[in-house]
Amino acid sequence: MMLRRAVLAVLVPVACLVVTSGGPAGAVRPEPSSAARLGIPRTYDAAVAHIDAATRTRTLKKFYSPSHNIYCNVGLKSYPRGCEINEGAVNDPDACAGNPQTKDVGRLEFHGNRVVPVCNTDTIRTGGTKVLAYGQATTSGGFTCVSESIGVTCISLTRTLGFFLHRGEYVIFNAG
């Protein structure tokens, strides 16, 4: 019994030291990405913070997220300005009331002073589209979007409105 107490007296402090040190000596915990630190933007100001955290700004009229699940058009005038999701459309019967074909919002579009959820059965995707890497932003046609591993955030540069879109969720910022 004395031996067991002696072993525990030595092992417990060592185990506590290992647990509280975070791992082997000299190990550094990885920093979470800026998007992970910022979380999902739920206001226009939060969306601006996501865009400000972008590592590079490009000029693309349209783009895919690296997963190719989200496609956005911000500069082609012949198509609606906005983003659509391929897999993970958002079930929203209220937004899709009166649509007999779908109850899922698959696209968000800029219309004047509003962002509008669209219960689409069509697509705005076009060929020759480049990928906007995670952490990068693009500005075109009066809109700025940032691609992040958590989703895509887009805002208007002339009005206080925009949106965030990812698999299974969207957030609209219609402040005016």
Write up what this structure looks like:
The structure is a single chain. The chain is an alpha+beta fold and 176 residues long. The protein has one domain (32-174). The chain is built from 3 helices and 14 strands. The chain has helices at 2-21, 34-38, 44-52, and strands at 56-58, 62-64, 70-73, 82-85, 90-91, 104-105, 107-111, 114-118, 130-131, 136-140, 143-148, 151-156, 161-166, 169-174. A 6-stranded mixed β-sheet has the order 1-10-11-12-13-14, with helices on one face. A hairpin with a 2-residue loop joins strand 10 and strand 11 (143-148). It is globular, with a radius of gyration of 23 Å. It starts with a helix and ends with a strand. Residues 1-32 have low confidence and may be disordered.
The chain-level mean pLDDT equals 84
Give the overall shape: globular
Q: Write the H/E string, N to C.
A: HHHEEEEEEEEEEEEEE
Secondary structure: helix percent = 10-25%
Query: How many angstroms does the end-to-end distance come to?
Result: 74 Å
Strand count, sense and closure of the main sheet?
A: 6 strands, mixed
Task: Determine Rg (CA atoms, Å).
Answer: 23 Å
